[in-house]
Fold these 3 entries.
Entry 1:
Amino acid sequence: MTLRYPVFLPDGEELLPAGTRLSRGLLEKLSPRRGRKRGPERSLVRHGTVRRDLREMIRQGTYRTIFRDRKECSDLFRRMEQDRLPLPVLESLDYFHQKDPYTYKHTLMVFALSCLLARRLGGEFRAGIEEFRAGPLHDVGKLCVPLDILRKSSPLRRTDRDVLEHHTLAGYVLLFHYLGEAGEPSANVARDHHERKDASGYPRGIRLRNRLAEVIAVCDVYDALVSPRPYRKESFDNRTALEEITAMAEQGKIGWGIVRALVAHNRKDHPLPGLCKVSSEKRGTLPEGNFYGIIVEDPPAPPNPA
């Protein structure tokens, strides 16, 4: 893996320049030294207004149904409060809160939804629940994406899209820098949450086999569809959003187990994922004025003077 663009720290300092090859040895050098503490850590949920904001967010739109079980939500919040992160990582959330509310809300909702689905899926996730800090950290690499690209309300140019996709490797590097090997599951998810099981994703175009990254990927797509975004006039309605995700499973991009868990939580009786039948019928309506996925070619470079 080679960086096409530089990786910056929140204060603007360049951590790695463009063209850097991401070897294991380099990543180990970036991580906190052994025997040296990473610095103060705090609970993510207790940081700033996160708890209050999360509680408001899960009461809005389709999330009211998904998080309707009060006891389940109370248990979930208690578990989420146990995740402690270094202050520089929490400060990255403050950056999005102040500069890009879309990414801030998205970060928190992917955190909550991924924890909820992982609890419902059980099995391998119960032993590794501490790894679910991957939810709020999956997009930390967007610190390295200019705000005018994150906020853009018109179709992206191809170079804009390349810079946006850079957030996956940037997040991978930043999490190794802040968390070291202890944060490797989160770093791998930051790198791989846009990969797909059929190898159609990015940044490496590999077949996604990381189950945790797959959970984050489904939550990432779902929240991006049902939440406000600068690049479209209105959000997807819930039925259409679920049909879009179902289509991804039909195409072999994501697995059916996680899709069933999401659909089950969207039903008022919250059936077990294994008992949830997912309809193949498509009756949803795509929102108008949606520029996502539309790429405009860059203008030709001016000719060199003779």
Note: The mean pLDDT is 88.
Entry 2:
Amino acid sequence: MPDHFADRLLAAIDQKGSPVCVGLDPAIDRIPPEVAESVRDLLGEAWEEMDDVVRAANLIYCFCLDVIGAVADLVPAVKPQIAYFERYGAAGVAMYEAVVSAAREAGLIVIGDVKRGDIGSTAAQYAAGHLAIDDGPDAITVNGYFGADGLMPFVEAARDNGKGLFVLVRTSNPSARQIQDFADAAGKTVFQHAAECVAELGAAEGLIGESGYSCVGAVVGATYPDEARLLRKLMPRQIFLVPGYGAQGATAADCAASFDEAGRGAIVNASRSVIYAHQLPEYAGMEWPAAVRAAAESFAADIAKAVKP
């Protein structure tokens, strides 16, 4: 596989046939009871000796392993959301790292959804912890609202380690407009300013791959397709990580707004609508891993059809 992150991601998308990513958001109250039963049987006496936090960490780990097994041959990437692991302290962080490793071993691109960001000196520590380790994720999400000096440590770490970034530009949540739509005297919004900053940083020497795309990408929510079309023009070399499909209400047509004219340059994420598919009426009666797989197949086909040039 190519050494440059953008080239590697686009090659994986071509191999799997659809630009999609499955988010791993393992909420303990939504994990199928069968997972707890199988883990309890597997661990036996050791299960009884664990405290509740360690048990929960083991459950979310095993759930994620089963999801990875169900989708690994269908999708190019997964996106573990670290918040669902960090809430269990050291045990949860260890399980996050184990899930990242397992996904990479399964041949998947791994995007660590960590949304880190701070002033330069602290950002450098975050960057080293997430991007400079051999068995870490292929890319991470970062908060760009500290400006260029807060982003540069991440950019440099990504460049030097063959990794990638997705900088928050236009998020998918309903209240994003409260901050991101604030405009200057000329009418330019905060998210447009952020996009221009990302485009400039991502065009620096050593950051553009053979594909023409940078290892510095952007998070652009599918729930704002008109803004996504504008941002595609402002950031022609950025790969967009596109949340909002499925549970957040965006359609495949909405997602298509983030792609270039050739149907490339973006990867669409779905989390709850895939990993908790066993709770949806259309998959009623299926074993839960089979429901996950069926939902992933439907998701991938829907996006592939929408972005086909």
Note: The mean pLDDT is 95.
Entry 3:
Amino acid sequence: MRILKIGYVFFTQIRVLALLVSLFITSIIKSQDVFFSQYQYSPLLINPAYTTNDYDIKAIAHFRNQFRSPDPNYRTPSFTFVMPFLKKNTNMRWGGIGMSAHSDQTGTFPLLLNQGIGLSYAHNVYLGKGYNLSLGVQGGYYQYGFSTNSFSTESQFSNNGGYNPNMSNGENLNLVSRNYLDLATGLNFIKEDTTGRRKFFLSVSAHHLNQPNRSLLEEKNSLPYMFYIHGGITVFSNSEWLVEPEILFANQASFQRYTIGIKTTYYLRKETSNMLREASIAFIPKYTYQNSLALGLELLISNFLVAFSYDYGTSALATRVSGRGAYEIAIGYRKSLFKKKKPASIIDYSLGDIKRIYLSENIEDISKDLKNERERKGYNDELSDTDTNWYKANNHKFELDKQFRFGFNEVGLKEDAKKFADDMFDLLQANPRLKLYIIGYSDNIGTEKANQYISTERANSFVKYISTKGINPKRLKFEGKGEGEPISSNRTEAERAKNRRVRFLIF
């Protein structure tokens, strides 16, 4: 019995020594940085510039439980809060702040511990035409260590009772740890459409810029730099589907990790429930080279997010844990600060059937409005909600006649005309298939030739203004009709002012 006791104690001491050596080697090679397969729920661990990644306020709790050998498992709870800043009355992001906290630990007691909190700030620069560039910085305070509580020592043996795990192991160093400051920075480049939906992005970030000492021994061990390159692109998008592939590359000393994934989102459109109209379901598979295949499912209802993911190990480690993988759970709240433009209610039309222009992100919505209008008038032809060919037919046009109170012989655009032209620009930019035909008119004062010239220049002034904002001139046509087709008599100045107008044909 005495021999067994000595042998067990010797084995225990060797185990402690092996763990210390393992901690030292690990801190040099891999540094035990926090790892999530579905890193989009803990974005600030990748890049502090992601505080301005979109228009959403976010508060997300994220948990990962990973089985490994010989330790029972790694448990990593994380919490992220992000708040972007927008300029007043616009959708232009100028900055954002964020906070991330995590506690990465293994074992029941735990054996290993890596926890802390980081604060982030990013400044965003609008480069024009939907391009954004943001620079982020992050500072955090962290603790790294291990506990001796789970080790067995000679103090837990008695002469009569043998080994008693409930007795103290005699170790005074219950937690060996080191506290340190850590700094990070990152850049993020984004292209968005007019509705705020991301088209593509590319980001780079660097962590452990101050190379903090995280060694638990007397020797100094600076934490190696950690670099991330992250990018993605939208390959398909409409009112119901969104497909976004992406890639993440991580490098730290000799350690490298490649992850590719693709997020496929389906948006629920149920007229009977306002909540379901804001709902979406996403399938998110991700593959980490020579490590794991993660399959994720995300449900977003109104502003609330629930997600689950499971990792299937594909590395040599998987055979040592009998196929036991890892799972992740995320629960969060998201609220968009993006201000959708209200429908532009345009008055003073004398032509056309439709009296409102909807600044829509999808041409399908305009098609639905047209279908409803045709049904109201008794047309029996079928027009699909997703049919986008209607704009080619001459009998399917928006005809808008607008008075802008042009002064006598005036062709320049005043503020009300520019505001209307801005609405036309938004409509054309949001719906690339639409075209605009502009017709100018005049009153009957002056020669016919002069009125023809003035009416043409009035229409042309709109074309010049809209094209300089970024619309292809091939989508814009104009002509002048002089004093023809008056909508009011020309007997008084007030009646003549009504005839100094511009007509818009959208098809």
Note: The CA atoms of residues 177 and 373 lie 71 Å apart.
